[in-house]
């Protein structure tokens, strides 16, 4: 008999032969910035997550920077919303001002601008609408314009999450034409029409005013289509590709990591986060143990970048483990 237990006897021995490792530099922390002043507003459906006005950002971005986490993915929540989501691509919009503020305080922190109209439209959809139809091609120039204004504000990377066909190519062309050929694009390549997004929509005020997003986000029943979407984003110019949500789609992550020699990101989304938090608050699970197990699963499946609301907690736990040995 082969004795597998020989290599499980002590913590140091288990560490020595561990196949999968996490580093705080793998993490990106999502951040919500809201128009207004003196606002640190808890998101009820996401314990431990807040909406911050720009003047209250210092403590959270300092914490992210000092933790060693690579950067943030920033979402803006404007005062003004309209049918065209005009604040999304306003050079003085909420997210553009927040990016300038963050980069002024921590130039080395990677700031990734989420590119989508849903937080900025009065109908809550990710693109322009005609009646109850979400318009694809008409939306692309606005997404490209948003990408340019966020990069001009100082964003290090843009991440189109809209799921409009051709978005990556449109953004790449416009960035290149404006002298930003070195700015990378992280495509929300395989983004599924998931029930796990509900807490985010509460946090960002982005729930659709009619219907749902299944006409542009992916069908959860499809895996091969996800690989095709990823391949298409790569061909259009994406530098990093993403699978979202993470836990329910680790099969897609694994297939993508074995098919493409590209950085693979996962988004450990709001619903995945909130379920863990809710169960932990009830005392039903060990939060630290479950979070780390989930993060290792994402990394083991092939994710090289993990976008997660657990990032700050995980960074603290990893530091405690390291210092305790």
From TrEMBL:
Mg(2+) binds at residue 229. 5-aminolevulinate 2 binds at residues 270, 309. InterPro entries: ALAD, ALAD_AS, Aldolase_TIM. Keywords: Heme biosynthesis, Lyase, Magnesium, Metal-binding, Porphyrin biosynthesis, Zinc. 5-aminolevulinate 1 binds at residues 201, 213. Gene3D superfamilies: Aldolase class I. Catalyzes an early step in the biosynthesis of tetrapyrroles. Binds two molecules of 5-aminolevulinate per subunit, each at a distinct site, and catalyzes their condensation to form porphobilinogen. This is Delta-aminolevulinic acid dehydratase.
């Amino acid at each position: 008999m082969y004795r597998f237990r020989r290599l499980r006897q002590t913590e140091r021995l288990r560490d020595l032969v561990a196949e999968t490792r996490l580093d705080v530099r793998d993490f990106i922390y999502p951040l919500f910035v809201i128009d207004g002043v003196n606002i640190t507003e808890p998101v009820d459906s996401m314990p431990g997550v807040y909406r911050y006005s720009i003047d209250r950002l210092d403590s959270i971005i300092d914490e992210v920077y000092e933790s060693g986490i690579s950067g943030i993915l920033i979402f803006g929540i404007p005062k003004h919303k309209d049918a065209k989501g005009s604040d999304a691509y306003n050079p003085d919009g909420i997210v553009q001002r927040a990016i300038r503020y963050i980069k002024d305080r921590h130039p080395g922190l990677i700031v990734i601008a989420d590119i989508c109209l849903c937080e900025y439209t009065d109908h809550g959809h990710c693109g322009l609408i005609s009646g109850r139809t979400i318009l694809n091609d008409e939306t692309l120039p606005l997404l490209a314009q948003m990408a340019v204004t966020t990069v001009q504000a100082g964003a290090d990377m843009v991440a189109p999450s809209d799921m409009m066909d051709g978005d990556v190519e449109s953004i790449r062309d416009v960035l290149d034409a404006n002298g930003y050929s070195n700015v990378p694009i992280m495509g929300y390549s395989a983004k599924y029409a998931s029930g796990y997004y509900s807490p985010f929509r509460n946090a960002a005020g982005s729930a659709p005013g009619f219907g749902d997003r299944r006409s542009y986000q992916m069908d959860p029943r499809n895996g091969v289509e996800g690989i095709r979407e990823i391949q298409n984003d790569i061909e259009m110019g994406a530098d990093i590709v993403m699978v979202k949500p993470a836990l329910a789609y680790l099969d897609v992550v694994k297939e993508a990591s074995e098919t493409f020699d590209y950085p693979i990101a996962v988004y450990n989304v709001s619903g995945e986060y909130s379920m863990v938090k809710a169960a932990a608050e009830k005392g039903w699970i060990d939060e630290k143990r479950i979070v780390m197990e989930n993060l290792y699963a994402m990394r083991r499946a092939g994710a090289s970048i993990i976008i997660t609301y657990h990032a700050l907690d995980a960074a603290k736990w990893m530091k405690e483990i390291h210092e305790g040995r």
